[in-house]
Amino acid sequence: MIQSKLMTTLTRSISNVLETMFFLPIRVEEDDPAIDEWMQAVSNPVGAQIGFTGPFSGQAFFILSENVVMEMTANFLGLSQEEATSDQQQDTLKEALNMIAGHMLSLYDTKGEIQLGIPELMTADDITDTKQSSISDNTLLIATENSRMISGIVAAD
Residue 89, SS3? Predict the structure, then answer.
């Protein structure tokens, strides 16, 4: 029950944040292709994860192409893609997830009982493990005009 409601709010949140803050129109895939198949289209995947605690705890993640992070960074900071440094891209990825998770939890938890952690970059092993362990119930498959990404949340009572 918690997972289903969180996924609904995550869908709204990711759309709101990516389109409003990063000028990146997205489409959440309704059909459930295999994550491995979906992620084959993500070149040079990078990711971030963030934990949360409260009446229940969990973790949200966001995995996307390095090129999309470059585009998001340029859009967010008002730079050309060539001007966006690696540090700025890493910070933008973490901040994007922070905004997405924060917005999601504010929609879900109107009393403010859930505390959000600090976003961190995922290692290549983290990304591989997440792709292998993700199932359709806790993962959104997202498409932009030129790329694909995944985001998801795992919560435990």
Answer: helix
CB burial readout 1-38, b (16+ within 10 A) else e? eebeebbebbeebbbebbeebbebebeeeeeeeebeeb
Decide which of 6 and 53 is more confident: 53
152: domain range?
Answer: 2-156
Give the chain's domain count: 1
Provide the CATH number for the domain around residue 87: 3.40.1550.10
Q: How many whole angstroms separate alpha carbon 6 and alpha carbon 133? A: 18
Q: Do 84 and 74 form a contact (C-beta atoms < 8 A)? A: yes
As a dihedral over the C-alpha atoms of residue 17, residue 22, residue 23, residue 26, rounded to 10 degrees, the angle is: -50
DSSP code per residue over 70-82: HHHHHHHHT--TT
Closest CA to 61 of 99, 6, 101: 101
Structure tokens at 138: 């806790």
Please state the pTM of the whole predicted model.
0.90
pLDDT digits (tens, 9 = 90+) for 105-154: 999 999 999 999 999 999 988 887 776 665 556 888 888 888 888 898 88
Structure tokens of 24?
Answer: 């990146």
